[in-house]
Design goal:
Length: 292
């Protein structure tokens, strides 16, 4: 394991199932290991113990400011100034030991996209499941006393998944895709929906002002302090398949509770409600689709 000269911190490594986890999107790791900053000065080796023989995806980062909080969902991720490792695909064989070299080189420029919903007037944000009344969500960047104000906001660029230096248009609408996405994810009660799939409701952002500022350059990143999204009450089902995910039409948004998730390039995210909710009311806001 190697870190840039003069850069220290706690090193965290995670093993995910194939096709899941950062930097493409958040994910729940199956195995976690770490080395503290003090020990890291003495040794650059550490291990995962008792890992099952399977394909795995290895990813990690160097927590330079030691702000990682594994018990709080939205703080269990890299922040500005941390260094990222490239993801690696591993295939562990039975009764064999595998070694991998990890280098922490990629600099994290911004903090996760922490926000509050400006137009929320109660503890529950009611949404129309029938889609008769359009809903607007106004999101405002907020460091919440936990993040660096000058590094907190919505980091937006142009999507370039294939790395060819040109903006992608994955949905074929002849408009370059932005690197930031937002959606509402249904939180079904036990027995309401089978495991292995998620039901999401897309949020639509007017891309024109952002595209004008980005000018077709995939290297440019904007840090925006507020965004307005229109809720499209047409749910989609997100299916997980080995190494990929697929979307298919689900129908009207199911009645019930939802969480709001914002994903920005590099795998950083924010969700509401989240683990800061007990201390910060803005982070405990709930979303609920109801029939009018």
């Amino acid at each position: 394991m190697a870190a840039p000269d003069g850069v220290g911190g706690d090193a965290w490594l995670f093993l995910y199932e194939p096709g899941s986890g950062p930097p493409s999107e958040p994910g729940l790791p199956v195995y976690v290991t770490a080395v503290g900053a003090a020990r890291l000065e003495a040794t650059h080796r550490y291990v995962f113990g008792e890992v099952q023989a399977n394909p795995w995806r290895l990813w990690g980062f160097l927590d330079v400011d030691q702000s990682f909080r594994g018990e709080i969902d939205v703080l269990a991720q890299p922040t500005a100034g941390d260094r990222l490792a490239d993801a690696q695909e591993l295939n562990l064989q039975p009764r064999e030991r595998s070694e991998a070299n990890v280098s922490f080189g990629g600099l994290v420029r911004f903090d996760p996209p922490a926000f509050r919903v400006e137009n929320a007037s109660s503890e529950v944000f009611g949404l129309d499941a029938e889609g008769i009344t359009p809903s607007l969500l106004s999101l405002v960047a907020d460091p919440l006393g936990r993040l660096e104000p000058t590094k907190t906001g919505f980091s937006i660029g142009l999507l370039d998944v294939d790395g060819d230096g040109r903006p992608d248009d994955l949905d074929g609408d002849r408009v370059p895709d932005l690197s930031l996405t937002a959606f509402l994810r249904w939180l079904p009660k036990p027995g309401q929906h089978p495991d292995g799939t998620d039901v999401v409701v897309p949020l639509v952002l007017n891309p024109a002002p952002l595209l004008a500022q980005l000018s077709g350059d995939v290297r440019t990143r904007l840090l925006v302090d507020r965004l307005s999204f229109t809720v499209v009450p047409q749910a989609q089902e997100l299916l997980r398949k080995p190494g990929r995910r697929e979307l298919r039409l689900f129908g009207p948004a199911p009645v019930g509770d939802y969480e709001l998730i914002v994903l920005q390039g590099g795998g950083q995210f924010w969700r509401i409600p989240n683990g800061l909710g007990p201390q910060l009311p803005s982070q405990a806001l709930r979303f609920r689709f109801e029939r009018r």
